[in-house]
Amino acid sequence: MSDWHDVRLKGFCRTIGTPDDWFAPAASKRAKIAKAVCSLCPILTACGDYAREQGIEDGIWGGQDEEQRRAYWENNGGRPTLFDESLLHIDRQDQLRVNEEPDWREADMQAEHDAEFDGGPV
Hints:
By secondary structure, the protein is mainly alpha-helical. It contains six helices and two strands, in the order αααααββα. Strands 1-2 form a two-stranded antiparallel sheet. The longest helix has 15 residues, at about 105-120. The protein starts with a helix and ends with a helix. The model is unreliable at about 85-100 (pLDDT under 50).
């Protein structure tokens, strides 16, 4: 849903309650109240569709809690992946980086260089 950011502005969750209400444990009273508010919301269907399509696990979305979305994914081919995880790597400073195309040759050359100065094999 490309226009989700415009649609979400119409959600009751934007003006009713606090974030704690929408991200409460599934069996809690807060979650039950959040689901009741969702049931009257004009974007109920769009919100639920968005959460399922985006693989959002936490919170009440479209009147569904985490357990209900997990059950949906189990019955419908699994949870979607939000991005191509092969485009990520952890660099030498343990920083998560996004690459257009990982350059493993450069990493291998750096490892060989470090091994020379550390006195050990790669």
